Amino acid sequence: MSTDTNALSAPVGGTARRNSLPYQVLMLTKRNLITIFRTPEALLPPIAISVFFLVIYQSTLGRAAGFIPDIGGDYLGFILPLSIVSASLAGAGIAAQNLVRDIERGYFDKLLLTPVNRAALLLSPILAGALILGLQTTIVLGVALLLGLEPATGWLGLLAVIGLAIFLGTGFAGFTVSAALGSGSAAATQGASFIFFPLTFLAPTFVPLALLDGWLRTTALLNPITYVLGAMRAVLNEGWQVEAIWLGILACLVLALVTYALAAIALRVRVRRS
Predict the structure, then answer these.
(1) Distance CA 146, CA 95 (A)
(2) CA 5 to chain centre
(3) 51-65 burial code (b ≥16 CB/10 A, e <16)
(4) How far apart are CA 184 and CA 100, in angstroms?
(5) Are 10 and 55 contacting, i.e. CB atoms less than 8 angstroms apart?
(6) Whose CA is closest to 229, among 245, 217, 213, 253?
(7) What Rg, from alpha-carbon coordinates, does the chain have?
């Protein structure tokens, strides 16, 4: 059994602290992050893809943005949230893939034999994935600043965008973690991270919501990504638009609650099978 498992289960001094949920989440999240950073090749593709498309969108569509009404500011600030959301989608499966490896190697079953809180088993890969997405978002924002981004809300606005990305990332990670727990398959988990990709094209991706019509507008209004994009765009291009920001936070919350529930059900089923 690994030292991480021993650290959580050893009956020595500080037992109360070891049995606390925050401590267990912290230890397991730390282990997940260490494992992720040992395989940097898994981190680079989502960042590279997001940066690539950001540069392409800005260089090809940026000049045409002057003919698009209701953007609310610079087109770079308008299209940047799309790259951030794309990075969140592409990177959501990283922590879940670690969970699959733990299941395949039997480490997860060993954890089930210890006094580890079941909530810690669920929250730690989700939190690790969200923190990785925060790092990816920071890098993408850095590239955007080099391209000339001037956020309407300054550095605080950039922090708000990172916070929204992390919150959104917990929802995406919750879904991939549920897939990992339910299937124990790396292929199924990777496939789960791509299910949300169509949602990015059923939202006001390249033009404002006001320009959408018919079934596409109706679908966009029901799509949580629409409101996350709107919140980020408001912060970057318009300022502290309270309504848009709260709608973005609410959309992240609803998505997270749904995917956490799915992950909790998947964990319960796996525990019963073990």
Answers:
(1) 29
(2) 27
(3) beebeebbeebbeeb
(4) 5
(5) no
(6) 245
(7) 20
Q: What type of residue sits at position 232? A: M
Sequence-separated (6 or more) residues with CB below 8 Å from residue 40: none
Tokens for 182, please give them: 């339910």
- pLDDT in single tens digits along all 274 residues of the chain: 454 555 555 444 456 566 788 888 888 888 888 888 887 777 777 788 888 888 887 777 666 556 565 665 678 888 899 888 887 776 677 778 888 888 888 888 888 888 888 888 888 888 888 888 888 889 999 999 998 888 999 999 999 999 999 888 888 888 888 888 888 777 777 777 777 778 888 888 887 888 888 888 899 999 999 999 999 999 998 889 999 999 999 999 999 999 999 989 998 888 887 6
Domain boundaries, the chain: 17-273
> What gap in Å lies between CA 105 and CA 218, rounded to an integer?
45
In terms of Cβ atoms closer than 10 Å to its own Cβ (0-12, 13-18, 19+), residue 225 is buried
- Residue 229: both structure tokens together: 């994009």
Tokens 């956490």, residue?
260
How many C-beta atoms surround the C-beta of residue 191 within 10 A? 14
Q: Hey, what amino acid is at 272?
A: R
